[in-house]
Amino acid sequence: MEIKVQNMTRRFGFVTAVDNVSFSFGSGDIFGFIGPNGAGKTTTIRVMTTLDLPSEGDVFYDGISAVLYPEEARRIVGYMPDSLPDYKDVAVWEYLDFCARGFGLKGALRKRRLAEVEEFTELGEMREKFLCSLSKGMKQRVSLARALIHDPQVLIMDEPAAGLDPRARLELRNLLKILAGQKKAILLSSHILSELQDICNGAVIIEKGKVLSAGSIQEMTKTVEAEAAREEKKGEVIIIECPSQLEALKLKLLEHPAVSDVCEYADGKLHFTLADEEKNLTPLMAQLFNAGLPIKGFSREQMSLEELFMRVTEGKVQ
Amino acid sequence: MNGKLKYYDDFLNPVLVKEIRQFFHNKLFLSIVAGLLGVQLVVLLIFSLSFSEWKDGSEAGKIFIVIETILMYVCVLSTSIWGAMQRFTQERSSKELDFTNITLLTPWQIIAGKLASSLVIWVLIAALCLPFMTVAYFFRNVSFQDILLIFGSGIVPALILIQGALLCGAFGKKWLYGVFVYFGFQVIVPMAILSIAPFLDHGAQNATAWHIFWMVHGGGLTLFVLLLASTIALITPPYANRMLPLRAMLTAMMIPVLAVLPFSAGFKKEIQIVFMLFPLGIIFFFALLAACDRDIPGGRVLAKVPENQVGRFLHYLFSSNRTGGMLLSLLMLLILGAELLIAGCFNKEYYTILAFGISGYILFYTGIGILLSRCTPSIPGWAWTLIVAVLLGILPLIAAANNDISLSEILISPIALLDRGVNEIHVWNYIFWIGPAGAWLLGVHFLIDMLKNYKSYKAPELLQKKDELS
User: Could you tell me the residue range of the domain that residue A118 belongs to?
Assistant: First the structure.
């Protein structure tokens, strides 16, 4: 399954909320949709989930246009909004049962899907409770169950972690990993970038209605880091793991002309900046091993999603 | 249990199932129903104890049946109708909660489910009231036929109230509850009383009572269908052809009136007035819809345009686009004018001239409003139409309050003429021609617009995509 947002623009009168946005992702991907408030995330999501029409452009699900064939698109997409109705007289199972009926599921199939989503989202004990009596975390679970009731291939989530406590966030993260393992394509918008860091393999960064960067996080990080390095002309940040003799290692590193900013990173770890990494890294490591230092390993420091987002939205990378 | 029987509710509308479940979970509903039973028992007890004091030929039976009817409808209004409106308002308040967006249910399925659930609850309440109502027979002076007629006279007003509640709910705004209450008490309750009162006064054998009954119920059913179609159009998503059911239904209502109109000269004056007011109302509604509509239909509507020329032309007139809506309205006005000329009505009655002329003015203002909204896309067509109607229609009247009527005032406002010369026949002739002439003049613009768009009405690239997908 390939999801392709193609040159999508949405105007409200004179205001252009989303301007010529294009990106794509596929089955098994968990894509973060990142942007400040008012960037156009919800507008894009609404068009993708057929809640709204674009002024221009389209969204394709394996070539099926969401504009021309919204019903077909809706069968493919499960949408988890950040709100759930506050019914005082509808139990959890009744709500899910209604949504299943609304997607045309009948008889034993409906019963089976209901049991499956209740089990997956661990709503079994809550099934007889009315929607209005649920906590925020439980409502998010019901919302996820509703989005999954027709077994969609694509899951689009708007701020799923908002208002959740740490435990609920962790549980949600685990559920998403399982869903990605089932080859579902997932797009989730969030402000909590540290949450996305661990689960997303791709991201779309949007600001003022325009996509600033889109693709896999690794590729985006590489590009941004290369840009940053070029700008600062300092070099790569390297982390080196050495259980003992940290002081000796520090001195040895400072002797090297390409090394700067050496400091302790964590227990048994140092980090430093190495200029012209490609040329200097191998000789430096050989030098350290020859000096008899107990080095266990080394790695390049990964840019966090937050850093990536800040750099991209600062306009440093276009 | 047999497999098919086990899932018998699969054959029911999902919204109906949900709503009925909600009713029976609602403590307020259950309390009101229990309260209804209690109150009915108390009323019955009071009437039974005091029955010996009523003289022969007294009104005890009638009073009892009136109390029962009022109790039943108060209960229906406060549970089935009010509850349906509240829930629908909540569901429509956000796009993320709207069933047309989060499920595959069609607008028709949603409205039919809600309507059916309200009717089911109504039937349930009626079933609780009917045994008590039949007791009225034993209090004398009321026949079973009267009881059934009194009970039945409320059906159409109740249907209108249910549909009116759903229409208010479809907007998703709580402040419309007030509009509903006002509309209910000002229009529907008097309508129900008007329908029931003659039977109470004169009994089921009275011809006038039946005459009023059919008038009220005929008009009431028309209003109900209009509300139903409006609600469906309102909740139809923007990508769909939301105008098609509404325009088709209005046209279907207009056809019999247009068919009978040339022969209406022999009718009573009151009926003739109704025959003129009805097309005026429909044309006004058409104009309002055209003003609210979009200029170009969505891709999905375009992808469903029929291949043949006749189908394509009809699709253009009836589907979601302003030009089609305006041309359809102008066509109606043209047919109406031709029929009135043939019937010779214009030389006889001022009200036909007035109704026809005002229809023309309404379309004239709408046409200008649409043209202005094309120049300023941020201001919707209906807002421009309102501004134009106020500026052209009402302001000249105020400006010329103390002066003689001028030609420009006559040209732009029928109200100026109404104010000055109600008894002068030449004034009516002015009204007859100017408004419709202005509207048709603008109609030429819309016709050219249609001819320009007609070829591209079915975009080939859309068809290609459709073919590829199929």
Answer: 2-208
